[in-house]
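Example 3.2
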Amino acid sequence: MMPQYQEGDRFHTTFTLDPLTDRELDILRLLADGLSNQEIANQLVLALSTVKWYAKQVYSKLGVNNRSHAVARARSLGMLDDKPTVQPPSTHSPRNNLPAQISSFVGRQRESTEVVHLLKNSRLLLLTGPAGSGKTRLALRIATEVLPHFQDGVYFVPLAAVTVVDNILWAIAEHIGFQFHARGEPLDQLQKYFSDKTMLLILDNFEHLISGAELVAKILQAASDVTVLVTSRERLHLYGEVNYAISGLTLPETRRSIEALQSESVELFVQRAQSVVPTLKLDAEQLYHVVRICRLVEGMPLGIELAATWVDVLSPQEIADEIVQSLDILEAERRNVQQSQNSLRAAFDRSWNLLDETQQVAFRRLSV
């Protein structure tokens, strides 16, 4: 336990201080400058909830419980001495092809912080998790956080539509803007291109191309400053890979209204439901059934989002009752997303089709 610091305390107890991340230091300096949480959010281009979460992390690491004690503690430790004022993000960001997100990003503050830390110390990082767990959205969120650290750019390479392992190279080349020459092996050309680059590649939806994982290893061997972030439903099983498994969003431990609204899963449902019915307000009874919905889909973002699309025709209780009867209700008609993102069954089917016959037989027997 971190000892609680009292302002004016003359005792100097020796203890191990968990180091603050760069972002936490940014937040701390702005707190010391007297900025409100909203002002910090505006300056750093962050969500207000994200700023509050970082502030709590700072308090915890410093062993305090409010901002004035945090600032006093930081000054006593020399953490604010000779530190430049935090500047807003530069408008001259490294090149990237990151797709702009239409909907808000909810939760995952802990995962975001941990993955950013892992990226600083590993060159091949996997985000693995079941269908609908939000691996792609988390990867894109991470990409915007680390963008300034890769001077030659951050590039997103969607692989869901790639069906042949040999086409992975061509997909990468297409999304980084590289053109192959008529002479020479494509892999050799791509390795040479990457050899002097400081770049992050995000290879999204790799699970159906596992047999081509060696290509990733060859790129990393040829380019010492290239980092690869892979999203996949299973590991690549390459030497040196670091696996970060994600599951559902946090669920409320109880059904009390205040606690429920503060959980990531309920927050996501409310936000998506209000995009369907902007005037939607939930009373205690309805919130109880929203918690039921989130628990039934185990906090999986895709399940929550699909359930929320029904709030204009069904009550939260009716949605929850339908889920208990069948997963068929968890589908929607959204033209601008893949079919596997429009139906929970379709998402599961994609995973099922990746299994060989022996594995499918085993699962059928287990289901009985």
